[in-house]
Amino acid sequence: MKHTAKKTILVTGGMGFIGSNFVEALYKAKPESHIVVLDILNYAGRFENIPPNIHSSPRFRFVRGDIRDQGLVEQLMQNVDYVVHFAAESHVTRSLQNSHVFYDVNLMGTHTMIRALLQAGRSIEKFIHISTCEVYGDAYTGPIQETLAQRPATPYAGSKAAAETLVYAFYKSFGIPVVIVRPFNGYGPREHIEKVIPRFITNIIQNKPIEIHGTGKQTRDWTYIDDFSHGLMAILDTPIKKVHGEIMNFGSGKGISINDIASIIVDHSGTNRNMITHIADRPGQVYSFEADTAVAQKLIGWNPATKFQDGLKQTIDWYRNNPGWWMPLLGTEKVEVAIDHTKVQF
Ligand SMILES: NC(=O)c1ccc[n+]([C@@H]2O[C@H](COP(=O)([O-])OP(=O)(O)OC[C@H]3O[C@@H](n4cnc5c(N)ncnc54)[C@H](O)[C@@H]3O)[C@@H](O)[C@H]2O)c1
Fold first, then answer.
1. DSSP assignment, residue 123?
2. Ligand 1: does its nearest atom lie under 6 Å from the Cβ of 286?
3. Residues 167-179: tens digit of each pLDDT
4. Per-residue pLDDT tens for 100-140?
5. Cα distance between the two ends of the chain
6. What are phi and psi of 295, to 5 degrees?
7. Fewer CB atoms near the end CB (10 Å): N or C, the chain?
């Protein structure tokens, strides 16, 4: 461990899917570090996403609170060295139903974080802002470079693009030590069953059909969650002068279709492929996401290590072995969206 030894890292959204996996990995990999999690515990953030041994550790502190709470965020920023900012409303379909909270949390919450960073001054060494590949939007095939013009296709993507622009603008004006990461799709344990891979897996476990939005030919670029954590730790370990103000994709560079994912899940579970069905496509559907990963390779020497088939099998096994985690969420995986005054469930 290099630069983060004995440092304190504030992780916003650390009780959610990516955040909790990152906290667990960080806790193990950097035994001298201190971790503070700020999380409001919305429907996707859960206290039990962090194991009891970490909760009870003197190296760990959980603060239940809101990134939009200026006083709280300013106070927390006084005593930390690094910030990794995951906290967000994260589900595309929910943003079609109620966009307000997405702009409030993702944009204005990030504004609060950045204002507090300015207040904290030089004591913060690095602020890693977690954006998303969704900022690119559609109308593109082949590997996406960071320089591609943004065309966000959903309210979620718009809110994340706005937040990222805000972070970049404050970096340009004030030179604050930001690094912007655009993860493509993550998968692994503890992802809410509203998201595609856990939804498919838990349906098959319950002997229910998989429902694919549209043709299923749309592709996404998938990274196993542990690989994201390693990439983020590589950013923490890289001197700020090398990554200051940089924007980097986090992905595998390979597109895998939703149809292929459904087939692997069904086959690995020993179920019949007639369990795969198709429903109406979701508004704002993006047909292709595939990362150009050269910037992350060059700046932090990071490449995801897990093969998709292997990571997916580990994920299937985790959901099979942890029904107590996801069963309480049943019934919340679908969201009702009004299209042309007709209500459709996605
Ligand atoms: N999951 C992916 O594949 C993916 C891909 C690209 C980018 N991202 C981004 O990564 C980040 C984490 O995504 P995730 O999948 O873990 O999402 P998630 O929904 O599982 O977790 C989000 C966490 O943020 C917390 N939160 C929400 N509003 C808050 C607020 N006002 N104050 C404090 N905490 C709040 C929630 O309680 C939750 O614990 C998000 O910024 C998301 O946009 C995710």
1. G
2. no
3. 999 999 999 999 9
4. 999 999 999 999 999 999 998 878 999 999 999 999 997 66
5. 44
6. -65, -45
7. N
CA of 2 from ligand 1 middle (Å) equals 27
Q: How far is the CA of 316 from the centre of ligand 1 (A)?
A: 22
Q: Is 251 in the pocket of ligand 1 (CB under 6 A)?
A: no
Domain boundaries, the chain: 8-191+222-254+285-307
**CATH tag, 8-191+222-254+285-307:** 3.40.50.720
268, 201 in Cβ contact below 8 A? no
15, 24, 86: residue to mutate for ligand 1 pocket, most atoms within 8 A of CB: 86
**83: CA distance to ligand 1 center in Å?**
15
> Is the C-beta atom of 225 inside 6 A of ligand 1?
no
For the chain (346 residues), the mean pLDDT of every run of 10, in chain order, is: 73 98 98 97 98 98 98 95 98 94 98 96 92 88 91 96 98 97 98 97 97 94 98 98 98 96 95 92 88 98 97 97 98 86 82
- Whole-number Å distance, alpha carbon 14 to ligand 1 midpoint, is 8
**DSSP readout, 157-178?**
HHHHHHHHHHHHHHHHHH---E
Residue-level pLDDT at 131: 98
Q: Which two tokens stand for residue 223?
A: 């990274």
pLDDT in tens, 305-333: 999 999 999 999 999 999 999 999 999 98
DSSP 103: I
Cβ neighbours around 214 below 10 Å, total: 14
The string of DSSP codes covering 250-293 is ES-S--EEHHHHHHHHHHHTT--GGGEEEEPPPTT---B--B--
pLDDT of residue 2: 46
160 CB within 6 A, ligand 1:
yes
**Ligand 1 close to Cβ of residue 39 (< 6 A):** yes
Whether the Cβ atoms of residue 170 and residue 119 lie closer than 8 Å to each other = no
How much is the pLDDT for 140? 65
How does DSSP classify residue 80? Answer: -
pTM of the prediction? 0.96
